[in-house]
């Protein structure tokens, strides 16, 4: 069945709108990294690998975020004048811990060092990010 010009245009518009909707649902914040992954608030001493992250108080929700996965993208430096640390990659991480402000956490999402290194130069230490929930597989 041949597509008419009108149905082709509708199809293209639908794809564009769906893409825009997925971008619009991404949250933004600040990311840092940490290096000691166990024990964690979600899994105790169980090793959950190294593509993991800790959620800030604003995301924690009494631990309901434990085990959820997020796609994280670097969008730029946290501080102006420090060059662009982003690699252009994204990374999928599983939330395994809490990054509590009472413990000094100043980020939205605290990535494992390997996860941070996948999306940005670790010398930056702090970056701006977008993140959205994704499947863990």
Write the layout of secondary structure elements.
Blueprint: H1 5-24, E1 27-34, E2 52-56, H2 57-60, E3 69-77, E4 90-99, E5 109-112, H3 113-119, E6 127-134
Parallel strand pairs: 1-5, 2-4
Antiparallel strand pairs: 1-6, 2-5, 3-4, 3-6
Write up this protein.
It is found in: Secreted. One of its GO terms (cellular component) is apoplast. Residues 1-26 form the signal peptide. The protein has 137 residues and is of the alpha/beta class. It has a single domain, classed as RlpA-like domain (Barwin-like endoglucanases, Beta Barrel), CATH 2.40.40. 23% of the residues lie in helices and 32% in strands. The chain contains 3 helices and 6 strands; from the N terminus they run H-E-E-H-E-E-E-H-E. A 6-stranded mixed β-barrel has the order 1-5-2-4-3-6. The radius of gyration is 18 Å and the shape is globular. The protein starts with a helix and ends with a strand.
Instruction: Indicate the CATH topology.
Output: Barwin-like endoglucanases
> What is the typical, i.e. mean, pLDDT?
85
The Cα radius of gyration reads 18 Å
Q: How many domains would you count in the coordinates?
A: 1
Gap between N and C termini: 36 Å
Strand order of the largest sheet: 1-5-2-4-3-6
Tell me how many strands there are: 6
Unreliable residue stretches: 5-23
Main pleated-sheet profile: 6 strands, mixed, barrel
CATH class: Mainly Beta
Assess the beta-strand content as a share of residues: 25-35%
User: Strand-and-helix sequence, N→C?
Assistant: HEEHEEEHE
How would you classify the helix and strand content by structural class?
alpha/beta
Instruction: Provide the CATH architecture.
Output: Beta Barrel
Compute the number of helices: 3
Anisotropy-based shape: globular
CATH superfamily: RlpA-like domain
Helix content: 10-25%
